[in-house]
Amino acid sequence: QVQLVESGGGLVQAGGSLRLSCAASGRTFSRYAMAWFRQAPGKEREFVAGISWSGGSTNYADSVKGRFTISRDNAKKSVYLQMNSLKPEDTAVYYCNADSGSDDYWGQGTQVTVSS
Fold it and tell me: N or C: which end of the chain has fewer CB atoms below 10 A?
């Protein structure tokens, strides 16, 4: 079992930055690939960014490439999402996901609101 707790969301003006954190507890964190997803009102949850268990491989949705950076610290059992040049369309609840290939876990989400 893995518990995930997101933090760092808030209200920011367009062009601003936020850093989301996801703290994990439970089983060995380093066994899990980690990802960030988001869900805007009235829309389906969508993939934002992912990082391999070692941190050596990352991938991003086209909509955030060049603006967002995902990273992890296995010693701290944490994953981060640095979000720069934020746009109003980035407004959503952001969720942390842990995936071992055979099971996956979700956090409760953190709200990010970008004003124009």
Answer: N
Phi, psi of 62 (to 5 degrees): -60, -30
**How many residues would you count in the chain?**
116
- Across the beta sheet with 68-73, the strand order is 2-7, 18-26, 78-83, 68-73
Over residues 81-116, the pLDDT tens digits come to 999 999 999 999 999 999 988 889 999 999 999 999
Could you tell me whether strands 110-115 and 10-13 are parallel, antiparallel, or unpaired per DSSP bridges?
A: parallel
What are the tens digits of pLDDT across the range 57-80? 999 999 999 999 999 999 999 999
